[in-house]
Specification:
There is one protein chain. The chain is α+β, with helices and mostly antiparallel strands. Helices cover 38% and strands 17% of the residues.
């Protein structure tokens, strides 16, 4: 299931991705389960990643991008040459309740004891 992106969202993601370096390299072995797992972990950690694909066949790169997006529930942002940009929002993590403060009462200073009556 692909996440739909509006043109405005896609443009903003392209701008964010401009300064990124490719995190994952898809080699001549293609999209193996190990590479897909690494892409999944990278998307979980970073949301927006670049993937470099080795090979000169544009149709094969398009197929790899489609498989990544279908298998990992991500959205394609951009495909320029051998670089693929993929986006998947981070899952919502319920925030933990803040623990109560374990602060101790302020310690009495020496002089405060001297002035007691």
């Amino acid at each position: 299931m692909l996440l739909p992106l509006s043109p405005v969202e896609r443009r903003a993601l392209k701008a964010r991705a401009h300064g990124l370096e490719p995190i994952v390299l898809v080699g001549s072995g293609g999209l193996t389960p190990a590479v897909a797992g690494e892409i999944d972990r990278s998307l979980t950690a970073h949301e927006l990643i670049k993937v470099r694909v080795v090979g000169d066949d544009r149709d094969a790169r398009e197929d790899i991008l489609k498989r990544i997006c279908d298998d990992l529930n991500a959205s394609p942002v951009q495909h320029i040459g051998k670089i693929l940009v993929v986006y998947r929002p981070k899952p919502e993590v319920p925030s933990k309740p803040k623990p109560k403060s374990k602060r101790k009462a302020p310690r009495a200073l020496k002089r405060s004891f001297q002035n007691r009556t």
